[in-house]
Amino acid sequence: VKIAHKSNSSVLKLIGVDYDKNPDAYRAAEPETYIDPGDPPVLLLHGTADKIVPYSEAVYYTSKLRSIGIIAELYTDFDVGHAWFNSSPYLERTTQALLRFISVYMK
Question: Has this prediction a pTM greater than 0.90?
Answer without folding.
Answer: no
